[in-house]
Each structure stands twice: as C-alpha cells, then as structure tokens.
Amino acid sequence: MSRALFLVAVLGGLAWVERRRPLRARTQPSGRRTAINLAMAGISAVVTGPLQTAVLDRATTWAEHRRFGLTRWIPLPRWLARMTGVILLDYTLWHWHRANHHSSSLWSMHAAHHADLDLDVSTALRFHVGEMLASVPVRAAQVIVLGIDRATLRAWQTALLVAIAFHHANVRLPARFESTLSKLLITPRLHGIHHAAKPDRLDTNFGTLLVIWDVLHGTRESEVEQADLAIGLPHTVGGRTPGLLDSLRLASSHRDT
Ligand SMILES: [Zn+2]
Fold first, then answer.
1. Which residues contact 134 (CB under 8 A, 6 or more apart)?
2. Given pLDDT bands bounded at 50, 70 and 90, which one contains residue 254?
3. How far, in Å, is the centroid of ligand 1 from the Cα of 75?
4. What is d(CA 181, CA 152) in angstroms, rounded to the nearest whole number?
5. Measured in angstroms, how far is the CA atom of residue 37 from the centroid of ligand 1?
6. How far apart are CA 2 and CA 12, in angstroms?
7. Which residues pair with 196 in a beta bridge?
8. Separation of 176 CA from ligand 1 center, angstroms?
9. Distance from the CA of 186 to the center of ligand 1, in angstroms?
10. What is the DSSP letter of 250?
11. Which residues, including other chains, have CB under 8 Å from residue 196's CB and lie 6 or more apart?
12. What would the pLDDT profile of 228-244 be if each residue is shown by its tens digit?
C-alpha cells in the first residue's frame, strides 16, 4: 500500500470512529468545517509539497555525503542511531511548536490552526500555508544537524502524520487505557487541552509524539475535563469557525484578542 493510501485509510478510520465514540460534543456544522480544513490542506500541499520534497532531498543528500550530523558523529548501531534520530526529531519539533506560540509572527499563522472551534481529524489538516512554508527550512535544519538519513526521515514523516491525525481526533478512548497511554504518547485528551481557548491551557502539551518533552519542561497538563473545554481562541468561541479567506489572513499577534 502506498503511503498516501495508508494515510487516507488512517484519516478515514479515525473519522469513522469519531462518529461512533465522540470525546467532545460538536459546536459547529461539521460539513462546513471539514470543507474549509480540506481546502487549507489542499493549498498547503500544492504550495509547499514539491518544495519540501526537493529541499529535504537536498538536505539528506548533503548530510549523507559529508557524514554530517549528531547521529552520525556518535558511534551507534544503525537501529539505535535511527531511533535516536526519531526521538530527537520529535524533541526539536516540540521546540518549533512552542516557538509557534511564543513568537508573534509565527503565532499570526499558527493561530489559523487554533481558530477551529471544534477539534477532530480534519483539524489535523488545517494549517496556514505560511506556517507550512516556514517549517520547510526548519525541517531541513533538523535533517542536517541531527544527521537524518532518507529511510529515517520517511519513517518519521509517516509516524508524524499518524500521530497528528490521532491526537486531533475527537475519539473517546477507554479512560484507563488513555490514562496509561498518555504517560508515554500525546493522546486526544491531552491535545484537546492544548486547543482550549484559555491562554494558560494553550501553552501546555506542545508534544507531537512523546509526552516526555512536556514533562521535562513542566508543560504537561492532564487534569482538565474535556466537557469543561471551550475549543478555539478566546475571541472566536461562541461564533463560527473562520471561513477559508479569514483563515488565510494573518491573525493578530496578540494571542488574547
Ligand atoms: Zn499549537
């Protein structure tokens, strides 16, 4: 099965479970939101997809030819070097996500992702094209500095897309299972807290794959009932998820307005 087909199956499977076991009640008509989120994903894919592929191809080739990067400099068995690479990719992505919240220019684009007033698997596709463009040099730097080879990059990109689809999904997992899982991985309940409209909750649970980075930085938050969450941004809660054009405008740099 190709990677694209596999990812469509993952998204479709999660969307199917969302209808049977929702974690949070919807506040928005889902057809309109899904259409907007898919349109944003389409624009980002067309604008940044070929560019990202070309840039990362060059970055992996450059690092490979020069034997450059942390996981190449430390003598490790290949499997351990690859695992270390994936873990460090996840950690550096944690910093990139936090930077998207703390830098006003990055937040002006990342806000489009948080402006969705419901959270489900379609939100996993809702990223501003500017944020996707800005992430291309960051990905290239990750690949070069960490010494990521092609196979590791491909495995991580697949794991990343599955993890992002999973933790955005509006899926109610058995509470004890999710409580155990959330000690290791970012789960739908944990990421739901990150999408809450309260500013102090926005600054928690920045992780993508592993929870440990939020534990280390004191930003892990799990003690919030999902029923108490208002998803979105403080100024949009109670309204409608912004349409496509509004979502593509750069948001105010002030996060509380
Ligand atoms: Zn965020």
1. 106, 109
2. low
3. 35
4. 24
5. 16
6. 15
7. 231
8. 26
9. 13
10. P
11. 202, 224, 229, 230, 231
12. 788 999 888 888 888 89
- Ligand 1 centre distance from Cα of residue 63 (Å): 30
Of all residues in the chain, the percent with pLDDT exceeding 90 is 79
For residue 13, report the distance from its CA to the centre of ligand 1, in Å. 24
**What's the one-letter identity of residue 41?**
A
Distance between alpha carbon 2 and the CA centroid of its chain, in Å?
22
For 180-185, which contacts have Cβ atoms below 8 Å and span 24 or more sequence positions? Answer: 182/211, 182/222, 183/211, 184/210, 184/211, 185/209, 185/210, 185/211
198 contacts 49 by C-beta, under 8 angstroms: no
What's the 177 CA to ligand 1 centre distance in angstroms?
Answer: 25
Helices (H), the chain: 3-20, 30-65, 70-73, 78-102, 104-114, 129-146, 150-168, 175-181, 188-194, 199-202, 212-216, 244-248
Q: Over the stretch 37-75, which tens digit does the pLDDT of each residue have? A: 999 999 999 999 999 999 999 999 999 999 999 999 998
Distance from residue 77's CA to the centre of ligand 1 (Å) = 35
Identify the residue whose tokens are 């996707």. 132
